[in-house]
Design brief:
Strand order of the largest sheet: 3-2-1-4-5-6-11
Number of strands: 14
CATH architecture of one domain: 3-Layer(aba) Sandwich
Structural class: alpha/beta
Bound molecules: NADP nicotinamide-adenine-dinucleotide phosphate
Helix content: 25-40%
Strand content: 15-25%
Radius of gyration: 18 Å
Shape: globular
CATH superfamily of one domain: NAD(P)-binding Rossmann-like Domain
Largest sheet: 7 strands, parallel
Order of helices and strands: EHEEHEHHHEHEEHEEEHEEHEEH
CATH class of one domain: Alpha Beta
Number of helices: 10
Length: 270
């Protein structure tokens, strides 16, 4: 297959790029650097020209992912996350799109969410992802993949583990989800590539941000102190849904449990 990975310098995108490049012809993009194909999603003509180059599969992982940044500058978040969907979908021809979305399309007031659950974003980031999902889902054959917090090691952006370089890490005890181990994502996408509509891919265990950070810290034997915060004590940069437990009624792919994932993470630790 000829595959285009938009956002191949990112945390998720660089892992997908590395995985698929082992067996396919893959073009990966960034706004600059890493020897990737340079493209800025703000440049609609550049998006059209690139996407129109005859790919079989386009995996879109690029955009504004920082919830606080999206909340501070909604116009920039919509410009990065929604506007480029129009030239992308215009130019995609016969290719299949896999669009990565988020559990932040939900409000966090329900026990869990499957693919049929109603979306009700409570922050700007979630609003941009709902708008982009709608553009994707207006076409029958494309696939929206909603992810929870993703953790693990990534080839070009180690943003999850980089937090452990700090001496103190604030982590919420009142925000829970089913985090997904990053290396499980690409194999799951391979299994789901012929699906369309919406799929959720999340881990099996429900745990708080605090619990996850502590378990990773302990397993890495990192010196960082994890400081428990909650709705009242945390920096108020963005409204955050509290309980985002995603389930799937379409498949049973979850990746490893947290202990197995952390064994894997540490066995690859250099
Ligand atoms: N990480 C998670 O826990 C998580 C959870 C749920 C959903 N997701 C979804 O997964 C996807 C990837 O997230 P991530 O955490 O991997 O994000 P990330 O590490 O911040 O990577 C974002 C990527 O987007 C690119 N990008 C940003 N703005 C761009 C622009 N204007 N034009 C072109 N490229 C641009 C960046 O490339 P350059 O900076 O090199 O240009 C980078 O490759 C997103 O759709 C996100 O919503 C992630």
């Amino acid at each position: 297959m000829r595959i285009l990975v938009l956002g191949a310098s990112g945390f998720v995108g660089s892992a997908l790029h590395a995985h698929f490049a082992a067996h396919h012809e893959v073009v990966g993009t960034s706004r600059g650097g890493h020897g990737l194909t340079p493209v800025d999603l703000a440049d609609a003509d550049a998006v059209r020209a690139l996407v129109g180059q005859g790919f079989d599969l386009v995996i879109h992982t690029a955009g504004v992912v920082d919830l606080g940044a999206a909340q501070r500058d909604p116009a920039a978040a919509f410009a990065a996350n929604v506007a480029p969907m129009v030239p992308l979908l215009d130019a995609i021809g016969g290719a299949k799109l896999i669009y990565l979305s988020t559990d932040n399309v939900f409000d966090g007031t329900h026990d869990h969410y499957d693919e049929t659950a109603a979306r009700a974003p409570i922050n700007v980031y979630g609003e941009t992802k709902v708008a982009a999902e709608d553009l994707v889902l207006a076409h029958d054959r494309h696939l929206v993949v909603r992810l929870p917090l993703v953790y693990g090691r990534s080839p070009l952006s180690n943003k999850f583990l980089a937090r452990y370089a700090a001496s103190e890490i604030a982590a919420r005890t009142d925000i829970v989800c089913n985090p997904l181990y990053l290396p499980a994502l690409a194999p799951a996408l391979e299994q789901l590539v012929d699906e369309s509509g919406v799929v959720h891919i999340a881990g099996t265990e429900t745990l708080s941000r605090y619990e996850l950070m502590v378990r990773v810290r302990d397993r890495l034997a990192a010196p960082a102190r994890i400081v428990a915060t909650d709705r009242l004590s945390a920096v108020q940069d963005c409204p955050r849904p509290l309980r985002l437990v995603m389930r799937s009624n379409r498949h049973s792919l979850t990746g490893p449990d947290v202990d197995t994932a952390l064994d894997d993470l540490c066995s690859n630790h250099h």
